[in-house]
Design goal:
four-stranded antiparallel beta sheet, Rossmann fold, ten-stranded mixed beta sheet
Amino acid sequence: MMSCHKLFLRLSLTVILGGVLGSLISCESAPVDHRASDSPKQSSDAHATVSTQPSVTPATASTQPSNGAPASVSPNQSSDDRVLVESRESIYNNIYVYRTGTYVSMTFGHNQHLYEESRYNTADDRELPIPYTQFMTASLMYPSKINSILEIGSGGGRTAWYLHRFLPKVQITSVELDPVVVELSRKYFGIKDEPNFRVIARDGRMFLSDSKSRYDVILIDAYRGPFAPFHMLTKEFYQIVKAHLAEGGVVAQNVEPTTMLFDSAVKTLHAVFSQVEFYDASGDNVGGNVVMVGYDGQDLSSSDLHRMAETHESDYKLRYDLSQMVPHRFLLKPVGSSFDVVNQAGQETAGIDDKAKVLTDDFAPVESLKAIARHNQKWTIQSDPATQ
C-alpha cells in the first residue's frame, strides 16, 4: 500500500498531466513547501515557495489589486531584488522581513535556510499570495453558520485578515506564540485592532485550554520554519480543539505531506474526528502542502459542499471561490485497521501506513506547562541570512 505522504506527489502529477486543475489553479502558481531551501539567500521556505498568481481563481475574475492600482511586482525574482527591511531576534525565532516590489515577506532563519511564514501584497490587502492559505478558507464550506473563527499560528496575520475583510461581522481571533512576530505583523503586514478582530500573543494550545469560547471554524497553521510543535499534533490537542468547536464546527490544518509524521497526523486526527478530508493545495508543484479538515457527523457530499459554497459566496463575496476548491477534495476511507485516501469518485489514490501510530502527549497533564515551553524552545542553530 502506498504511504500517504506519497499521495500528494501522485495527485500532483495526475493533476498536472490530466489538466484537472482547470481554471482553479493558475499556470504560474507555485506550491507551498516546508522543506529547506538550498541556499539561505533564496526565499524558499517552510510555508511557501513564490507564487505570482492566485492559486484559486478570484470570484471577481480580476487579477488586478482590488484598490485599482497597477498590478503588483511579482515576488518571483532573484534574491538580489529582495531588500532586507528589518531583522529581529526573539526568544523563539530569528526573524527577517524582506521587501520585493510591493510584496513583504516574513521569514524565519534556521540552519542557514530561510522559511517564509507570511507574504503580503501591500497594493492588495485581499490577496492571499501563498496557495495553501487560499485552501485554508475551504473550511468555510462546512458550518451552516459562521459566527466565530479561531486561528492558531498567526504569523503575519494575512489569512485571518483576509477572513476579517470579507466576514467583518464574524468574531475572529488569531493566536500567535511569538510577541515579536505580532509586533512585526502590525508594523509591516497591515494588521491592526478592529471590531471583531484581535490578535493574541500566546501558545495556541494554552490559549484553548484556558478558553471557554466555542468556534465554528478553527484554523491551525503553527509551523515555525520546518517544524510544527509536537504538542499541537497529538490526540490530546485535537480533543481540546474538538471541545472548543460549536455544533457543526470544523478544524482545518496546514500539513506538509512529505514529513515522516504525516501518516501519524492523519490517524491522530481521525482518532478524534469521525470525518477527515484533504485539499491538495500544491498547485502545479509536486509534493506541496495539504489542508487537512476534520469534523464530526455524516460525511458531506460534493453537492452538499457546493450548496454551502454558493450560500457563503452569496453572503460574503469572497475573493477565492469556494466551489472551485471542491474538485481538490479527497476523503479518508477506513479499510480494516487502516485507511485509504480516495477521490470523490471513491477510487483509491493512496493508503495510510499501517505502522503509523496515533500521536499522544509525551508528558503528564501536571507537566504540561514545562513540556509546552520545551516544545516551543528556539532552535539551537540559526544563522543570519543577511550575512551570507
